[in-house]
Amino acid sequence: MTEMRVDQHNRLDAQLLLFMDQLEALEEKRHKLNSLIEEGWFSIAKARYSMGNKQVSVLQYASEMEPLVHVEASLLEGGTAEFKCERRENKTEEPKNNTVEDIGAKETGLRRRINTKQKGVKEEEQETDPQVKTKAESSTPEHRDPLKWFGILVPQNLKQAQSAFKEVITLSAEIASLQSAILATRKEMQMKEKQEKTQPEIKEE
Amino acid sequence: MPGRGKLIAVIGDEDTCTGFLLGGIGELNKNRKPNFLVVEKDTSITEIEETFKSFLARSDIGIILINQFIAEMIRHAIDAHMQSIPAVLEIPSKEHPYDASKDSILRRAKGMFSAEDFR
User: Fold this and answer.
1) Torsion angle, CA of A171/A175/A177/A179, rounded to 10 degrees?
2) Which keywords fit this entry according to its UniProt record (chain B) (predicted)?
3) Is A182–B87 a contact, with Cβ atoms under 8 angstroms apart?
4) In Å, how far is B99's CA from the nearest CA of chain A?
5) Best residue of A46, A69, A87 to probe chain B, by most B CBs closer than 10 Å
6) Does B32 reach chain A within 8 Å, measured CB to CB?
C-alpha cells in the first residue's frame, strides 16, 4: 500500500519536473522568437527607409499568393499536437533542371522564328512546349518568392527580414508543439492530483 | 494520422503580416479566402473576431499567429478555443511587447481556469 503511494508520489514528482522543464524550454524559445521578430521588424523599417514609405507596405502584396511553407500537424496520444514545418525550397531545383533543356529549346525556337515562312505548323507545335514550360517556370519562381513583390533589386535589409521571419516560422511550429505538450502535462498532473485526493479516502475505509 | 500540409494563418498589424508573408506563409487566390488579416486602426473587433473564428473553422489551418494586443481584443474567443489544432500563438507587436501573464495558453497551464479544476 505504502509502496503504491510512494510510486504515485514519484510519478507526480517526475511529471512536475517534466512540466518545469517544458516551461523553461518554452521561455527560451519564446525569448528567441521575440528577438527574431524584433530583428525582422527592424530590417523591414531599414528597408522602408531606403526604398520609401510606400514601397514596403500592404500595397505591394501580390494579388495571388501561394504558400511556400506548410505545417504537418499530427495528434498524438493524450491529445498533444505536434507541428513540423516544411518549406518548399526543393521545388526551385526542378525548374533549374528544366531550364537547361528549355533554354536549348528556346534558342532553337528563336532561331526558327527567323525562318517561320518555311516551317509553319511544325514550329508552332515545338514552340508551344517551351512556351508552356517557360510560362510555368516564369510563373512559379516569380510567383513564389515574396521578395519579388517589392521589386527586382531589393535592399539587403529586406532579405535579412525575410530570413529572420523564415526562422520565426520554424520556431513558431516548435513553440506550438511545446505549448500543446505543456497543456497535456498540466492535465495529467491535475488528474493524478485528483486520484491522490480520492484514493486516501478509499484506503481509510 | 499525420495531417497533410496545413497553412499558417496570421492576424497582425502591417509589419507583422508583411514579415510573415515574406517568410512565405501567405495564400491568396480567387477560389479561397486569404489566410491572413492585416489589422489597421479602423479594423473593427467584429471583423477580427469573425476572421479568427473562420480560421478556427477551416480544416487546412494548423497554426494561427496573432499579435498579443489584437488577442486582447478577442480574448473571450481565444479562451474558448480548447482544441489542439489549430494552435494559437500570441506574438508581440512593435508597440506592445509580449506579456506572458496575458497569454491564454500559459494562463491555462498555470491553472487559472479554476472551472476546469472542479470538473
Assistant:
1) 180
2) Hydrogen ion transport, Ion transport, Transport
3) no
4) 11
5) A69
6) no
3-state DSSP assignment of residue B91: strand
Please tell me whether the overall predicted TM-score, pTM, comes out greater than 0.90 for this model: no
| Chain A residues whose beta carbon lies within 8 Å of the beta carbon of residue B29 | 64-66
The structural domains of chain B, ordered by start, are 7-110 (3.40.50.10580)
Per-residue tens of pLDDT for chain A, all 205 residues = 688 888 888 888 888 899 999 999 999 999 999 999 999 999 999 999 999 888 888 888 888 888 999 999 998 877 788 999 888 864 444 444 444 444 444 445 455 555 555 444 444 444 444 444 444 444 444 457 888 888 888 899 999 999 999 999 999 999 999 999 999 988 888 888 787 777 665 544 4
Gap between the Cα atoms of A12 and A17, Å rounded: 9
Closest CA to B9 of B83, B67, B74, B72: B67
Burial annotation A46-63 (CB, 10 A radius, 16+ → b, else e)? bbbeebeeebbeeebbee
* CB pair distance less than 8 Å for A81 and B91: no
CB B5 within 8 A of CB A86: yes
**B98 CB near a chain A CB, below 8 Å?**
yes
- Asked if A40 contacts B19 with a C-beta cutoff of 8 angstroms, the reply is yes
- Closest chain A residue to B10, measured at CA: A169
Q: Is B17 exposed, middle or buried (0-12, 13-18, 19+ CB in 10 A)?
A: buried
What value of ipTM does the predicted structure carry? 0.88
Q: CB–CB of A171/A87 below 8 Å?
A: no
